[in-house]
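Lecture notes, part 5. Sequence design as translation. It can be helpful to think of inverse folding as translation between two languages: the language of shapes and the language of residues. The source text, in structure tokens, appears below.
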């Protein structure tokens, strides 16, 4: 197993660990607060890769080729794995892979943490407080939960699409039917077969490149402000965990096409026009497909309640909170009983007023 070159994450002033700080926008020592700027090479920019060229290189289809040995410069222990950044399993030191791995797509952009750990904790606490149906014990969790920061890899895809379609255009018209009392106007639709071609350029269609966070949660955490992304430097990962992608580019592209499909369908409906549309077939060609790997920041709070583990996630770019929490059985019961009491009171009042009348 090859040994990885690691980013220097040791503070020159005190020997403690450097981590990327959302507040400082640079590396900062967790102990003495010394700062180290992240230096970008001149002309460093976020570039996209041509998908067809990448496919032609026959690159390793999955990231798991990137298995490496990460030697901690603090305690000397070696951590193995495919992660881009991880905590040393013995001393908690910040291990960040510095060098690219042959055949593995490297991140091209990173959306740095903009929400710090304290702000994420506050967001988590106010989320908990706003949950009326949450059990009381959960409201105390805010102080004791574990919170860790992670970058979740995503693919972005661009594509110039041309779609040939066929269908029917429906134009409404009105006829008068019946006689006398039954005389009325009815709406009818005249259907005409139509066919044509529509084009649309898609820019930065974002799809998860990791299966570690459920898609449903990632969808709800968005949208992300991708215009705030920086060209990738591994220093941004110091102090956070970063998995490599486990959804390879071909599977990512399939998911991106699924995202494009409803937009294209909408275009086809507009092109058909009329009052109603029937779409029979759409055949789409994807040209000039470009892609890149981008890392998105997430705080994950984990807490245990009633013997189960629950998770709350904070989008560390926008502060959006998404979580799952237990419901309090007795609070829901009380709410239902309160509702029933109102109904009963209304019934009693109604019966009383009927009796009086
Ligand atoms: Zn220091
Ligand atoms: Zn260590």
């Amino acid at each position: 197993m090859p040994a990885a070159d690691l980013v220097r994450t040791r503070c020159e002033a005190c020997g403690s660990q450097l981590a990327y700080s959302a507040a400082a926008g640079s590396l900062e020592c967790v102990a003495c607060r010394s700062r180290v700027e992240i230096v970008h090479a001149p002309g460093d920019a976020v570039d996209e890769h041509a998908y067809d060229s990448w496919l032609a290189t026959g690159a390793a289809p999955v990231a798991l080729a990137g298995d490496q040995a990460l030697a901690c410069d603090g305690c000397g222990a070696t951590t193995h794995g495919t992660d881009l950044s991880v905590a040393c399993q013995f001393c908690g030191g910040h291990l960040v892979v510095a060098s690219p791995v042959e055949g593995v797509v490297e991140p091209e952009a990173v959306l740095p943490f903009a929400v710090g750990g304290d702000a994420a904790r506050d967001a988590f606490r106010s989320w908990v407080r706003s949950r009326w149906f949450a059990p009381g014990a959960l409201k105390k969790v805010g102080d004791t939960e574990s919170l860790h920061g992670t970058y979740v890899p995503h693919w972005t895809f661009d594509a110039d699409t041309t779609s040939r379609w066929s269908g029917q255009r429906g134009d409404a018209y009105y006829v008068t039917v019946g006689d006398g009392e039954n005389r009325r106007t009815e709406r009818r639709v005249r259907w005409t077969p139509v066919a044509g071609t529509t084009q649309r350029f898609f820019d930065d269609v974002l799809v998860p490149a990791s299966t570690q966070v459920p898609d449903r949660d990632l969808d709800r955490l968005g949208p992300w402000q991708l215009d705030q992304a920086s060209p990738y430097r591994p220093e941004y990962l110091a102090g956070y965990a970063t998995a490599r992608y486990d959804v390879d580019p071909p599977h990512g592209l399939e998911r991106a096409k699924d995202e494009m499909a409803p937009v294209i369908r909408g275009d086809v409906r507009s092109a058909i026009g009329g009052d109603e549309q029937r779409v029979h077939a759409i055949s789409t060609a994807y040209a000039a497909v470009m892609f890149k790997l981008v890392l998105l920041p997430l705080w994950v709070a984990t807490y245990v309640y009633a013997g189960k583990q629950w998770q709350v996630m904070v989008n560390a770019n926008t502060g959006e909170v998404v979580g799952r929490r237990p419901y309090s059985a007795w609070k829901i019961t009380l709410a239902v009983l309160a509702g029933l009491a109102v109904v009963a009171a209304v019934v009693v009042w109604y019966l009383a007023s009927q009796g009086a009348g």
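The translated text above is only one of many valid answers, since several sequences can fold into similar shapes. The chain has a mean pLDDT of 88.
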